[in-house]
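In this section we walk through a basic example: taking a raw amino acid sequence and producing a predicted 3D structure, encoded as discrete structure tokens. The instruction is simple. Fold the sequence below.
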Amino acid sequence: MGSTGDYHDGSLLSKYSLKPNDAILAEDFHMPLYDDLLSRKHHLIAGGAAQNTARGAQYILPPSSVLYIGCVGRDDYASQLRSACSAAGLRVEYRVDETQPTGRCGVLINGSNRSLCTHLAAANEYKLDHLQSPEIWPLVQNAKFYYVGGFHLTVCVPAIMALAKEAASNPEKVFIMNLSAPFIPQFFKSQLDETSPYWDYVIGNETEAAAWAEADGGEVKGKGTKAIATYMAGLEKANGGRKRVVVITQGTDPTVVAIQGEKEAVEFPVRTIGEKEIFDTNGAGDAFAGGFVAGIVEGKSLEESIDMGQWLAKLSIKELGPQYVLPKPARLLKDASPALFTHMRETQHTDFPFLPFRYPFPKQTYSKA
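The resulting token sequence is shown next.
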């Protein structure tokens, strides 16, 4: 969740040795930061990369479509996170860790810069036994789409592989992986490689794709995004009945899509947005993934699904942090494609076809530095 205040003097940046535009993991001396932020004017926003994506997909999909699994502590932050997800229509099934507090991320706003300081805490404590428990595993088996954020490769690879193999066991199920950050392929390459045969869809941005190519050291090292995406699409695949699709966003440049077996990647132009409309780009990639996956869940074409992702990302960057305005007023849908507009108005679900999986950062705390 997050908080924002009206502080412009940079005092918090100096106090906690933070750079104006950065993203770091909190050390011991950063721990008072979160209470410091809460003592100022603030906004609390549900966070965590895959949880942002889950809320984004649920924003588009009919009620009761999405189930999210992660790990929290036994504290008020977890209660606030549950409330935020409930308001968004997102079902959550958390493992509750008795030793660590709920993870949180402080975001200090300094003009157009964002300095993020994350305390993972309980987010690092997810266990396979929770996923495979009698209460949770039947929900996993009933799901048809599995989305995993790359950050979880630093926590519990066996849980990721359990989901990947479950998806591969049924030709109607889909496994989706997000690269999440450049350091994932740089420092967790073996873990990422273990999952790669199971990727039906893989999502990332151009920096993450370049980091993957550099770490791979293969023929596309140093090459352009389209070449990297095409190479990734052609990697060995466990489920031969479904072609792998690689989706690489490039900010305001066209989104690159490569399909296994096709010689060249294709590009899809990005929805334009005026500079004055941009309020906060934090979480835009998560929003894109949410919209894109919602399209895949609903059986939309690649073109439609990418358009849905770009629409939701455009919506997100008009708001503070990775959030989507509720309830959904008609004005927010004015630039949605006709197919998306009709879909959001008319369809209904009662099951859980889409299961995103990654730890939450329920305490994204925003303050103007």
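Looking at the output, two observations stand out. Residues 1-8, 348-352, 358-369 have pLDDT under 50 and may be disordered. The first strand starts at residue 22 and ends at 25. In the next section we compare this with other chains.
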